[in-house]
TrEMBL record:
This is Citrate synthase. CDD domains: BsCS-I_like. Belongs to the citrate synthase family. PROSITE patterns: CITRATE_SYNTHASE. Pathway: Carbohydrate metabolism; tricarboxylic acid cycle. It catalyses: oxaloacetate + acetyl-CoA + H2O = citrate + CoA + H(+). It holds the Pfam family Citrate_synt. Keywords: Transferase. InterPro entries: Citrate_synth-like_lrg_a-sub, Citrate_synth-like_sm_a-sub, Citrate_synthase, Citrate_synthase_AS, Citrate_synthase_bac-typ, Citrate_synthase_sf.
Length: 362
């Protein structure tokens, strides 16, 4: 019998939120192409779409944006925690701990209000923790700025460039939702025990940080730095594949063609990075890697995933690599909480089976 691993092909839930069509390379959020939403709408509007089920009209958008902005401040308990946590703790671990702390104020069943307050506070926790690691004073949120602009502002203390806001907004929207990926599944499993939304999101953050999931873009930068220039790309990738290493930013359980988010992010990055030799190298490495993956892993259909160009876009807007996975988390918290609201509507505890392969008693 074939080894049972990874729940490959198993349907764990029905959802109205997002659809990942892996054969055709399509991603749909509640009936809309995600790649279109990313360039025509703002973070707040797509959060509304994913949580409430429809795009907001102008007055709904205004009210909803104000609601989200008014929840950005850190609760005192979280501020105290962040002031006392060791500085060298990775930001994802800080985030996981801070969200777990908030679970004391959350209870079953999950609500839209809870989704708003968690989503609003995640960028503040990231920026507070990032600045504290650098020995810098925190920047209070500016409620006149959009969710995306305020995140960049809290990181740097400077008014962000419009082109950076636009690019980050597109990335955050494309990162919000992706069906039953590992972190969303983890969140739904925790909530299915009638635990609270913050505990479920804290578990999702733990799943997100692994290098096979949301931790990959940092490794993409490391790979490109190690390759260094176009002339070394082929030899470097061959050696990696011969050692049995995985190329970060390539391969996907569902996409058997190019991830549509990679395509969309490549276009957004191109607009910011014309004449950037690093981006030129990234394009060359992508092409070389796809060809070599087919040579070393024939028939596995391994293509670029979102993380390859997530790394490029975050680098292009001058985010340091330790912020890559936290920034992805600031996007995905919307999808997690949308799934948790949905899970509560149809809840039944998740309890798959295992096949016992150990010895039996004498
Ligand atoms: C937001 C996201 O989470 S996007 C994904 C981000 N993660 C990465 O970029 C990490 C690199 N990619 C991977 O490790 C994988 O492709 C995953 C984790 C994304 C998907 O894994 P799975 O669907 O379980 O694929 P699985 O591990 O079964 O791989 C199938 C085959 O392709 C190979 N393969 C898969 N991805 C890669 C890769 N990136 N580099 C080299 N080989 C790979 C495997 O070694 C395996 O080969 P085999 O048949 O000889 O054993
Ligand atoms: O769907 C997956 O398995 C991983 C992924 O791309 C995501 O979570 O965005």
């Amino acid at each position: 019998m074939a080894k049972v691993t990874g729940l490959d092909g198993i349907v764990a839930a029905e959802t109205d939120i997002g659809h990942v069509d892996g054969e055709n390379g399509h991603l749909i959020y509640r009936g809309y192409w995600a790649k279109e939403l990313a360039v025509h709408y703002e973070y707040e509007e797509i959060a509304h779409l994913l949580w409430v089920g429809k795009l907001p009209d102008a007055s709904e958008k205004q009210q909803f944006t104000a609601r989200l902005a008014s929840s950005r401040e850190l609760p005192l308990t979280v501020r105290r925690l962040l002031d006392n946590i060791p500085r060298e703790m990775p930001i994802m671990s800080v985030l996981q701990t801070a969200i777990a702390l908030l679970s004391g104020e959350f209870s079953w069943p999950p609500t839209l209000e809870q989704a708003i307050s968690l989503t609003a506070v995640v960028p503040t926790i990231i920026a507070y923790s990032y600045r504290s690691q650098l020995g810098l004073a925190p920047i209070e949120p500016d409620n006149q700025l959009s969710h995306t602009a305020n995140y960049l502002y809290m990181l740097t203390g400077k008014q962000p460039e419009p082109a950076h806001i636009k690019a980050l907004n597109a990335y955050l929207i494309l990162g919000m939702e992706h069906g039953m990926n590992a972190s969303t599944f983890a969140a739904r499993v925790v909530l299915s025990t009638q635990s609270d939304m913050a505990s479920a999101v804290s578990a999702a953050v733990g799943a997100m940080k692994g290098p096979l999931h949301g931790g990959a873009p940092t490794e993409v930068i490391a790979m490109l730095d190690a390759i260094g220039n176009k002339e070394h790309a082929e030899a470097w990738i061959r050696q990696a594949l011969e050692r049995g290493d995985r190329l970060m930013g390539f391969g996907h359980r569902i996409y058997k063609t190019r991830d549509p988010r990679a395509e969309a992010l490549r276009h957004v990055t191109e607009a910011l990075s014309s004449n950037d030799p690093w981006f030129d190298l990234a394009i060359h490495v992508e092409k070389t890697a796809i060809a070599l993956l087919e040579e070393y892993k024939p028939g596995r259909r391994l293509y670029t995933n979102v993380e390859f160009f997530a790394a490029s876009i975050m680098r292009a807007i001058a985010l340091p690599s330790e912020l890559f996975t936290p920034t992805f988390t600031a996007a995905r918290v919307v999808g997690w909480s949308a799934h948790l609201l949905e899970q509560a509507q149809v809840n039944r505890i998740f309890r798959p089976q295992s096949v016992y392969t150990g010895p039996m008693p004498e």
